[in-house]
Amino acid sequence: MRTRFRNMPLQIKLTSISLVANLFVFFINIVLLAGINIMSRRIDTVYQANLQLNELSVSLNWVQDSMTEYLNAKTSDSLENYYRSTQVYSEQAEELSDVVTGRLLDRMEYSIKNMSNAYLEEVALTIEAKRGRNVEKYRSHYEEATKLYGYISAYIYSLNNEQFKENSDNYREMVTAFKSFEQGGNLILIAVIIVNALLILRLTANLISPLKVLAGRADDVGKGNFDFEPLEEISQDEVGVVTKAFNQMVVSIRDYIRQIRENAETERMLKEKELMMEAHLKDAQLKYLQAQINPHFLFNTLNAGAQLAMMEGADRTYEYVQVMAEFFRYNVKKGSKTVTIGEEIELVDNYIYILNVRFSGDILYEKEIDNSLMNVKMPSMILQPIVENCVNHGIRDMMGEGRIRMKVYRQDDKACISIEDNGIGMSPEMIEGLLNGTPIPGLVKKESNGIGMDNVIARLKLFVGEEDVFHIESEGEGKGTKFIMYLSTDTRGTGDV
After folding, report:
1. Distance of alpha carbon 241 from alpha carbon 245, whole angstroms
2. Per the CB 3.0–4.6 Å rule, which of 235, 238, 351, 372 could disulfide with 6?
3. What number of other Cβ atoms are within 10 A of residue 477's Cβ?
4. Rounded distance, CA 287 to CA 455, Å?
5. pTM exceeds 0.85, yes or no
6. Partners of 492 in beta bridges
7. pLDDT of residue 51
8. Are 65 and 153 in contact (CB under 8 A)?
9. d(CA 492, CA 376)
């Protein structure tokens, strides 16, 4: 409910506050008026008992007079008048209390009621004796009825006086209570008006306070200060909309300034990265040039030898020489460019083929490739140096068949390449040395192409732009080694590293 009120438009909020305040005052007035009416009715009923007793006395005199009239005139009208008077008096007498308590007034009412019943019986017997012309009974009952009439009149008079005294005391108490109630009602009404005014001030202050905060923040922004938390959007009314727009404006300006700074920093880092990449590539190219002995002349010569082998029908020699030529051609053409995973795997295939020809097929080469990742970009000359490291430092000096397993697979948004051998394995110190670029005695041999693992790892980090791109796993010496690389799958297309 509170959230719904906050989200209302300002006009509806102000109207609601005014309406609720007026309804609250109106409700209090209704309660006070109801209390005054109740007190007034109670005051009006104070002397109701005296009025009833007066009416009972009048009815009693009516019965006595109608009986006397009939006894004297003995007409049908007087008889009918008698019946009506007794009926009225009987009904009024029945309303008297018939419960005996310790209260004097209740006992007097009880006595009047019993005497009234006896009186009506004697009156009825008197009328009956008169109509039956029984003079003796008539006189006896008349005298008894007249005596009871005197007793009842005296009791009614006494009860009326006592009742009047008690009602007068009650009346004074009720008048005093009424005045107290009136004063209390006035105080309550004043308190309600004060509380109502405070409530209106509080609610309007809650409406205005966000505007004050917003004005202060706008002044800070005008002075160029953007270093503060976004304003809390406590409602969805007009103030909330303005607050939200203000927050978005401040964030946009702050992001724009930060973007300018980041672009400048990124440009500087890219320049440094480019220089570092060029340095590593030049280092790799220099080492290849030193190792390949004029590669252009070499693979041209190999092509000539392949043509000669094909003309003489030496198919295996032709295939070997052709693979050698392709291997060296890749080094010359791709040595300074970004390539695809597929091109790097093709170079590894040629390299394994050449080794197996040289070493009579001692290396078992297995592949598990996700073809959807073949066009993912990577730096050139990454996989072949790793495979060469597996051969020279993993399976060359081991007893038994050497095995190299390459796997290309997808992991989340990364293209993963793992190269695993079953060679002599690596100790944790050797793994740490390779990853940190620390020279390890005996790790580089004559057969190496000159590109160290530190060069491979450094170029991978520069290309991906992250540190955690190369892992080495080994359970220990004699249990093989696994090299794992992580590339971004959105690096597609062609271009330089």
Report:
1. 6
2. 235
3. 13
4. 11
5. no
6. 376
7. 80
8. no
9. 5
Which of 90, 150, 154, 92 lies closest to 120 in space, CA to CA?
A: 90
Contacts of 315 (CB under 8 A, 6+ apart): 309
Give the residue from 96, 86, 90, 87 showing the smallest Cα distance to 63: 86
Alpha-carbon distance of 442 to 438, in angstroms, equals 13
DSSP string, 153-177: HHHHHHHHHHHHHHHHHHHHHHHHH
What domains lie within the chain, and their CATH numbers? 2-211 (1.20.120.1730), 335-488 (3.30.565.10)
The Cα–Cα gap between 42 and 176 comes to 13
pLDDT higher than 80, residue 163: no
Name residue 325's beta-bridge partners: none
d(CA 391, CA 402): 8
CA 308 to CA 329: how far, in whole Å?
A: 19
Expressed in angstroms, the distance from the first to the final Cα of the chain is: 61
Contacts (Cβ under 8 Å, ≥6 apart) of 99? 106, 110
**Both structure tokens of 424:** 């002599």
Residues listed for the chain: 497
Distances (CA, A) of 29 to 23, 24, 26, 190, 261: 10, 9, 5, 11, 67
3-state helix, strand, coil in the chain (%, to 5): 70, 10, 20
Contacts (Cβ under 8 Å, ≥6 apart) of 170: 46
pLDDT in tens, 405-427: 999 999 988 999 999 998 888 88
**Sign of the torsion formed by the C-alpha atoms of 129, 133, 137 and 141:** positive
The span from the CA of 476 to the CA of 115, in Å, is: 126
pLDDT tens, residue by residue, 295-306: 555 555 566 666
Please say whether the beta carbons of 243 and 214 come within 8 A: yes
Q: What is the tens place of the pLDDT at every residue in 262-289?
A: 888 888 887 777 777 776 665 665 455 4
Q: What distance in Å separates the CA atoms of residue 386 and residue 457, rounded to the nearest whole number?
A: 10
